[in-house]
Write a structure and sequence with these properties.
about 290 residues
Amino acid sequence: MRQVLVIGLNGLTLAALYFLVASGLTLIFGMMRIVNLAHGAFYLLGGYLGWSVLQRTERWGVALLGAAIAIGCVGLLMYEVLLRRIEKEDMRVALVTIGVSLIMADQMLLSYGGVAYSLRTPDWLRGAFDFGFAGLVYPRGRLFTLLLAVVVGIALWAFITRTRFGMIIRAGVDDRDMVSATGINVRVVFAAVFFLGSALAGLGGAVGGTTFSLAPGTDIEYLLYSLIVVIVGGMGSITGVAVGAVLVGLVSQFALGYIPAWASILTFALMILVLAVRPQGILGRAA
C-alpha cells in the first residue's frame, strides 16, 4: 500500500514539473500556432541561470523569479528577431528553433561544463511531510512542486478565460485581421504570449533543478516529454496539458516501479494510442 502511494506521488510530482514546462509550449502553440523546438533549451538555461542567481543572492525565490524573467526575455528576443517574419512557415520555424536549441546547448556546455548541477533547497522545504497514515512520508520539496503547478494552472486558466487580455488573445487566434481593425496591436499581444510561454520554461527549469538535477541532455529529455504531454492532452489546451501530464507522469512512474524495462515503451505507447483513437489529443480541438 505504502509503495503504491509513494509511486503515485512520484508520478503526480513529476507530472507537475511536466505541466510547468509543457504549459508554456502549448500556450505558444495554441495562441500563435508556433511549435518552439528550443523550449527544452529554455528549460535547461532557466535551470542554470536559477543556479547562478542562487549562488550570488542565496535567495531561492529570487532565483526562480530571475530564471523566469530572463528566459521570458530570451524567448521574446528570439520571436522578434528570428520568428516574427516567418511565423506562418512551419518548416522554417522548426529549423530555426532547432538551430537555436543546438547553439544554446553548445554554449551552455561551454559555460557550465558536463557536470550535474542542483539548486540548493531552501530550509523551509527540507525534510519530509508526514501524512499520518500508512506510514507515508514524502519530501516537502516535491509536494511544493505539485502545489506550484496547481497554482500556475489555475492562474493560466483564469488569465485566458476570465481576463480582457485573454479574450483579446483568443480573438486574435481566430481572426487576427478583425482584432487589428479594432485598434488593438496584435503583434504586442502575441509577443507577450511568447514571453509568458518562455518564462514558464525558465521557471520549470529552476524548479526542476531543485527537485532533480541539471546536466547536458536534460534539454532534449524535457522537450521530448513536453511534446508527448501536449500531444496526449491536446495541442493548445491548458486543461489538456494538465490531463496529459498526469497520465504521462503516472504511467512512467508505475512502469518504472514495477516493469522498469517497459517504462519508456509504455509512455510512448500511451502517445501512440491517443493519436490512433483521438488524433487531436484528449481535450484538443479537431482541425
